[in-house]
Specification:
This protein is of the alpha/beta class and 540 residues long. Helices cover 40% and strands 10% of the residues.
Length: 540
């Protein structure tokens, strides 16, 4: 799955595809109505949580490398590398916290946030206490962020040299040649080998299930009997696993932009679904640009805008902008427009300016950021390890080639780039897990809140509906006809009111509710001579 990183609010089936060679798990997972089975990992989680409750978290000044102000404190939580062996090797997860600003009578404990990825950190989450959309929540809750295992300073994982990860320029053909495919296959093999070589025996322990177990240890270390948690994007899958494993440990839980939790979707089929959804969102962006042709001059129809994009792509293939922005960097930058419509104005402006002879905005937005190379490589390593470890993947290139060739005929924008990102999983040496069957029965889990944008590409809307069906009593809030990824704490007051009512008072609609979409970006009133904002790049 193309990684979503931090969701915005915090800064269609593919029936004809052939995936017969993908091993499908049998339905022998967690039975409806049961807590976690009494296996070694469950016992190890209980042991680790008991120890963490006794030890607590010694919060103090944050290390300089976290770049956090003195109002935020930091600490660590010790967790087993292997939950089947809680007395064996341990690792430390970094944790950040800003204490609730309200009176003692308002205090409702800790609100833990996971921003997704896999491979993203929420160490900066406490800073959201200063945002208007979060001030009421920050009066009631200690805002707690953390770096999941493998991320940042939490037993960091690496698979290749950082500079190799951000090499540029690169190509991004919608119809790759056989020679190009062979090159990418070799790169994927080398990357998988690099992960195995650098991480050794520890590699197998970077999984979503262990992320959910770590979350229970963090809960205990914070002194919370029950967890209040908000997860965005991939963070919703961690939350769904946690709710299945530990429903009695849940106080309140928000799922923002939900991953489809069906075990047969994890992760190969989810990636195929996602590539198709990005094609729809790419069309939304082009239609918006066409409506604003007077501003951007890129065409009056989505097809004309697509032609101008392809024109830029061809020019960059011949002569990369600034020597570093090629077709691959262009595609990566415009993929951001599929995630967040806040990218629409700066991306359209950059394309317009580039085709008029000014490549500076495009370079500013699309060039690799060398200063962030280490963090980007680390995030990609964790992403790859978690997804490859979590579930079976096709191991025959012929299956990948057939499925993605067919899909690319309908969804050329993102299909092959998404395939190359995940291809190391075809050559993975660590053992594969069988995904847990996400499900709870009526009355087993307190009401939970699911937030979803109807046209979200990174986590298609079908995933939110499926998660609502599986977590009995869950409430679905839909932002209709909108596609920004991650909507809690964003620009939609209606969505935010449901979020606040739930987290502050535990109140939610009986089953579901809808919100009108937030306004589309309006570039007409912008001063085009002024510098456009350079938004944080979405990792891809």
């Amino acid at each position: 799955m193309t990684r979503a990183g931090l969701a915005y609010g915090l800064v269609a089936g593919l029936g004809s595809l052939v995936v017969s060679a993908l091993a499908v798990p049998t339905a022998n997972g967690l039975a409806p109505g049961r807590e976690a089975p009494p296996d070694a990992e469950s016992r190890g989680t209980a042991v680790a949580a008991e120890r963490a409750a006794a030890a607590g978290v010694s919060f103090g000044t944050c290390p300089k490398e976290e770049s956090l102000p003195s109002s935020v404190s930091c600490g660590t939580v010790e967790v087993p590398l292997d939950y089947a062996r809680p007395d064996g090797r341990t690792i430390r997860l970094t944790v950040s916290r800003k204490l609730a600003a309200g009176e003692t009578t308002e205090h409702q404990g800790a609100l833990v946030y996971n921003p997704g990825g896999p491979g993203a950190s929420s160490m900066h989450f406490p800073l959201y206490a200063g945002l208007p959309e979060w001030r009421r929540l920050a009066r009631a809750y200690d805002l707690v962020g953390y770096a999941p295992r493998g991320v940042g300073r939490s037993a960091p994982l690496s698979c290749q040299d950082a500079e190799d990860h951000v090499k540029a320029p690169t190509q991004s053909p919608a119809v790759p040649s056989e020679a190009f495919k062979r090159e990418r296959i070799a790169e994927a093999r080398a990357y998988a080998d690099g992960c195995a070589r650098r991480a050794g025996d520890a590699l197998r322990h970077y999984t979503s299930l262990n992320n959910a177990r770590d979350l229970d240890v963090l809960r205990a270390a914070l002194g919370e009997q029950r967890l209040t948690f908000m997860g965005a994007s991939y963070g919703t899958y961690i939350g769904a696993l946690y709710a299945t494993l530990h429903p009695s440990h849940v106080r309140r839980m928000v799922f923002d932009s939900a991953v489809h939790p069906a075990r047969e979707k994890i992760w190969y089929r989810n990636n195929l679904d996602q590539s198709l959804a990005f094609e729809r969102r790419w069309a939304d962006f082009r239609a918006w640009v066409a409506r604003h042709d007077a501003t951007f001059g890129l065409g009056t129809t989505p097809e004309e805008v697509a032609d101008r994009y392809e024109e830029a792509k061809a020019k960059l293939a011949d002569e990369p902008a600034g020597g570093v922005v090629g077709p691959g960097q262009l595609q990566s930058a415009f993929l951001g427009a599929g995630y967040y419509d806040d990218y629409w104005v700066p991306r359209a402006t950059a394309l317009s300016e580039y085709l008029r002879g000014n490549d500076e905005p495009l370079i500013a937005q699309a060039a690799p950021r060398r200063g962030q190379a280490k963090a980007a490589e680390n995030a990609n390593a964790v992403y790859t390890a978690v997804e490859c470890n979590d579930a079976p993947w096709p191991t025959e290139w012929e299956v990948w080639d057939r499925d993605n060739t067919e899909l690319a005929r309908r969804a050329p924008f993102e299909t092959w780039d998404n395939a190359w990102l995940n291809l190391p999983c075809a050559f993975w040496s660590a053992p594969r897990q069988q995904p847990l069957q996400v499900r709870t029965r009526w009355g087993q889990l307190p009401p939970v809140l699911i937030l979803a944008a109807e046209r979200d590409a990174a986590t298609p809307y079908a995933g939110a509906k499926e998660l609502t069906r599986r977590l009995k009593g869950a409430v679905l809030i839909t932002e209709e006809d909108a596609g920004t990824h991650g909507i809690g704490g964003g620009p939609n007051d209606c969505v935010n009111s449901y979020l606040e009512e739930y987290l502050l008072r535990g109140e939610a609609p009986v089953r579901r509710a809808s919100c009108a979409p937030h306004p589309e970006p309006d570039p007409v009133s912008l001063d085009r001579s002024a510098p456009q904002p350079v938004l944080p790049r979405t990792p891809v």
